[in-house]
Amino acid sequence: MTAVTITVLLFVIGGFIAFAIFLQLKEQARLEKLRKVAMLNNQLRQVRRYLDEMPPQYQPKDMRLWLFSRMIAIYDQLLELQPDATLTRRRGHLAEEMSEFQASKQKRRAKPINDELLILEVKRLFESFKSFLVLSQKEKFINSDVVHRYGKLLNFYHYKVNADYHSYLARKAFLSGQMETAVDMYKEALSQLAPIKESLEAQPIILKIKDLLQEIEEDLALQKAEEEMSKGMESEGEEELDDEWNKFIEDSTFQTKKRF
Q1: Assessment of whether the complete model's pTM goes beyond 0.85
Q2: Coil, helix or strand for 60?
Q3: Is 83 helix (H, G, I), strand (E, B) or coil?
Q4: Cα–Cα distance, 165 to 179 (Å, whole number)
Q5: DSSP character string of 22-33
Q6: Which partner from 7, 33, 172, 255 sits 20 to 30 angstroms from 23, CA to CA?
Q7: Would you state the pLDDT for residue 221?
Q8: Phi-psi bin for 177: left (phi > 0), alpha (psi -120 to 50), beta?
């Protein structure tokens, strides 16, 4: 075999190996792109879930705006990987939604915490959101100070959601005229806030519950006093009737004996 033939064979083999490596790298790049797209789509669904399912009372305006901005950034990453008219349209709608929310002065209506299963679901959302914040900090999409502040809020909300549930039960009992049950439920709401009673966020809520509790207890005391007074008056009336009846009997007996 001549040197020329050997050289040609080496070039052919080298070219084949290079082509195989190129195909392998191309396939790896394709798979990596698909992996990133899947990850970003999961993040989109995750952030949308926070926006839609986290009750408004546990989602301050700046937190919601950050979630909107994070979702838009994820759309931008997706569009870099795979330009798509549908994605572009969805991003535009999301940007409009964010702008409308930012400009709105109307306070979002709180969602009633009226079920224990709802409490469990909301708490799961809190834990998931904490993990998402940590990941976003690692990827430098949010700074550590904001993560710390949101973390403190989520810890506060973890206790507040239980207090909100018992406050809901207390109000329901109050409207049904079950005053003693309402008192018990408001006391339980206070006990749920006991671990965070020193926090600034908890102070106005604790004060409000105590005011409501005091009003109901005063109403209860007044009702009991009125009931006791009414019973006393009824008792006195019955005694007067008994006295009059006894006098009547005595008078009737005396007159009968006298006639006899």
Answers
A1: no
A2: coil
A3: coil
A4: 17
A5: HHHHHHHHHHHH
A6: 7
A7: 86
A8: left
